[in-house]
Design a protein that fits this description.
This protein is an alpha+beta fold. The chain has one domain: CNF1/YfiH-like putative cysteine hydrolases. It has 6 helices and 14 strands. Bound molecules: zinc ion. Zinc ion (ZN) binds next to loops.
Length: about 260
Amino acid sequence: MTVNLYFTIQELTATNLVKAGISLRSGGVSDAPYSSLNLATHVGDDPAAVLQNRHFFSKQSSINSLKYCQQIHSDSVITADTLSSIFLDSDNQNITAQTGDALISNLPDDTIGVFTADCVPVFILDIATPAIGIVHAGWRGTIARIATKTLAKMKDCFSTLPKNCLIHIGPSIQKCCYEVSSELLGRFEEQFGRKVHNGHSLCLQTANIIQLTDVGVKFDSISTSPYCTACCIDMFYSYRAEGGQTGRMLSYIQLIK
Ligand SMILES: [Zn+2]
């Protein structure tokens, strides 16, 4: 039986404009605590295992190249045409990635992606232009409104309008598992209102939805994954549920030629 190494984001792929998906956890060669399909090189895993995992993922998904950033929990958005691709099916993947936490593109040759394990991957598809964006939004990126800053940069670069965008909030830690300090809850409530928390638990998904609808994205154009990464560590990596040392999933999006 073939193990599924990723699943597609059907709310976006149904447009026939993009490939979009997220890698899963099973079917790779990394040892604990990275077991087993860790796709990120920056978390302390054996580089040879990550390379093998990328080959497996590339073969099954037909995603061969990737542009990504060295993620630093910032609000900086990078235009993909300034970056080089790595080729996931090759043995040479040594590039110095630019720092940033979101990428945008309007070129069919670009597959753009972010690595996460609890943080929120936000997929953006402007169906009119068309153009794409992908965002890494942990609590720092979310409170800095990186998702709306990504839309603003898409407007500058591609004339993207929020009302034309489909958004998917990918698998990430949800309020069932995300208790935070009252100081942090207060900061979120100040920016996004009371809906972002439930007792001591923070809902990053809601904070991202609020900031996107605030700038004109239609509520009905936003879909949210049902999966909480911390509840489902058989399928996904969870930074919090696994004590801070674990692998990363890859969320990716690519315009179809
Ligand atoms: Zn949970």
